[in-house]
Write a structure and sequence with these properties.
It is a single chain. Helix content is 8%, strand content 46%. It has 161 residues and is mainly β. It has one domain: Pnp Oxidase, Chain A (Roll). The strands form three sheets. A seven-stranded antiparallel β-sheet has the order 3-2-6-9-10-5-4. Strands 1-11-12 form a three-stranded antiparallel β-sheet, with no helix packed on it. The protein has a two-stranded antiparallel ribbon with strand order 7-8. A hairpin with a 5-residue loop joins strand 7 and strand 8. It binds flavin mononucleotide. The site of flavin mononucleotide has 17 residues, from strand 3, strand 5 and helix 1.
Length: 161
């Protein structure tokens, strides 16, 4: 499954001792009515169980300059935000600076999915800096980004809004 390319998102919340978060490649836009996003969390993740203690989360989709964040988030949970620039939203959720998009969402439903849990959340706010930011991608165990020359005109129909 390493060969499946994904975006890279930090799913996060703020707890008593500060921000907690984990990298997820499974983050996805799920529904527009209601507006739902979601990700698959591994049962073995200690951070997942901490996130599931919270009623809301931020989803920070990393940009192509955020490759060092991947290394930071492979480290101990207490140090993952230490070198990041982030702010606290009005809903008390961590927003990582300069993301492709940062989404604030509240718990919708939690569903079993084999050795993972599907976490669905309803979008309550979106922080979007504009179209010029490139996504960070993950493929075959390493970070990469999109190849500009492969771009086609933006689709007007049949694409996520
Ligand atoms: C690029 C990337 C994508 C990942 N995607 C997911 C994911 O979708 N779901 C998941 O549970 N873990 C995913 N992981 C692994 C978790 O980020 C990691 O296992 C977790 O933070 C483990 O640490 P913890 O036990 O301290 O929580 C991903 C890791 C990387 C590097």
């Amino acid at each position: 499954m390493r060969s499946l390319p994904t975006t890279v998102t930090v799913a996060a919340a703020i707890q008593e001792n500060g921000p907690v978060g984990m990298l997820v490649g499974s983050f996805a836009y799920v529904s527009s009515d209601p507006m739902l996003v979601g990700f698959f969390g591994d049962h073995r993740s200690r951070t997942l169980s901490r996130l599931l203690d919270e009623p809301a989360w931020s989803f920070n989709v990393l940009n192509s300059d955020h490759y060092s964040v991947v290394d930071a988030f492979r480290g101990p949970v207490e140090q993952r935000f230490a070198r990041l620039t982030w702010t606290r939203s009005a809903r008390d959720l961590p927003l990582i600076r300069d993301c492709l998009v940062s989404i604030e969402a509240v718990r919708h439903s939690i569903l079993p999915a084999g050795d993972h849990t599907l976490v669905l959340a309803e979008v309550v706010d979106v922080h979007w800096p504009g179209e010029s930011v490139e996504p960070l991608l993950y493929h075959n165990g390493t970070t990469t980004t999109v190849h500009r020359e492969c771009r086609s005109e933006p689709a007007t129909t049949g694409a996520p809004r």
